[in-house]
Amino acid sequence: MTATLRSLSGIKPTGTPHLGNYLGMIRPAIKLQEIHETFYFIADYHALTTLREAPLLQEYTYDLTATFAALGMDFNHHTFYRQSDVPEVTELTWILSCVTGKGLLDRAHAFKDASTKGQEVNMGLYNYPVLMAADILLYDTNFVPVGKDQQQHLEMTRDMAIRFNNTFGDALVVPEALIEDKMATIPGLDGQKMSKSYNNIIPLFAPEKTLRKAVMKMQTDSKTVEEPKDPDTCGVFALFRCFANEGEQAALAERYRIGGMGYGELKQLCFEHMNAELAAARERYDTLRANPEQLEGILEAGRDKAKRVAREVLARVRNRVGLYQ
Ligand code: TRP
């Protein structure tokens, strides 16, 4: 019998979950439950590198918990938790930082991007990749499903694990990235990549009317209904593809290329497919989101499961480096 492989990923509670989060991370993560044992967590320590409003951290944490619950995360067989409920991760962060060259962190994109944009670079942001490595290594993770933007962090995580193992003897599992490419291509309202920082998001569980309005508002060029259009370069079509099966995509692409189909009609179809996939989950979400006690219950159970693994791995690490236990 082969041992079950474990996948782990985290998501930062820094805003209301949007369609980009759903298609890029949440939907594939939920699907992965079918083949791997999964650990998913809310990266609230990471959010502290930028978030400055305490009540919002709590709200966004509940938004995410209700989102995963509504979309079918199986809490009995898998583990869902809040990062800060397992503070052991900060101890591993320290230990890893002692085998990580400063030069490695100097090359990290995340803080460099912030500094080019003139944003504050605090030490949390600078150390972000070490905390992320600790998130992953603390749970003997085999695979990490993430968007392409996280590839560098995963390479750094592997470097740290290998460096640790070479220095102190094997104790850490060296993980592999499972890169989800869609994230980069999910267009927002203005056609750029959907991202909170571009202010172009479509909230995942917006009420049906708001969702429809948002889709209808997506920017396009000004081609007339009759003109032929290219499904491969159109943002609305890209979004449609995320919610339609292959047959539906092929049929519509054909009509689109010939001409006679306008943006209004495509948007309406896009909305209908989207809504068909999300409507039932949206209802579950609304009920769950109104019940913080239930959400805390989910997080508590997850915390207990996560802690059991974390303690075991941390004991192994402490032993290797010679800390008293
Ligand atoms: N940095 C990730 C992001 O911004 C979130 C994250 C934190 C994460 N820790 C992680 C993802 C560990 C995967 C594994 O999307």
What does this structure look like?
The protein is mainly alpha-helical. The chain has two domains: 6-185 and 292-321, HUPs (Rossmann fold, 3-Layer(aba) Sandwich); 205-286, Tyrosyl-Transfer RNA Synthetase (Orthogonal Bundle). The protein is 56% helix and 8% strand. It has helices at 19-32, 44-47, 54-70, 88-97, 102-106, 109-116, 123-137, 151-168, 182-185, 208-216, 235-243, 246-258, 263-289, 292-321, and strands spanning 6-11, 37-42, 79-82, 143-147, 176-180. The protein has a three-stranded parallel beta sheet with strand order 1-2-3. The chain is globular, with a radius of gyration of 21 Å. The structure holds tryptophan. Tryptophan binds next to strand 1, helix 7 and strand 4. Tryptophan binds at residues 9-12, 43, 46, 132, 135-136, 144, 146, 150.
CATH-defined architecture of the largest domain: 3-Layer(aba) Sandwich
Shape: globular
Poorly predicted residue ranges? none
Strands of the largest sheet, in order across it? Answer: 1-2-3
> So how many helices?
14
How can the largest sheet be summarized? 3 strands, parallel
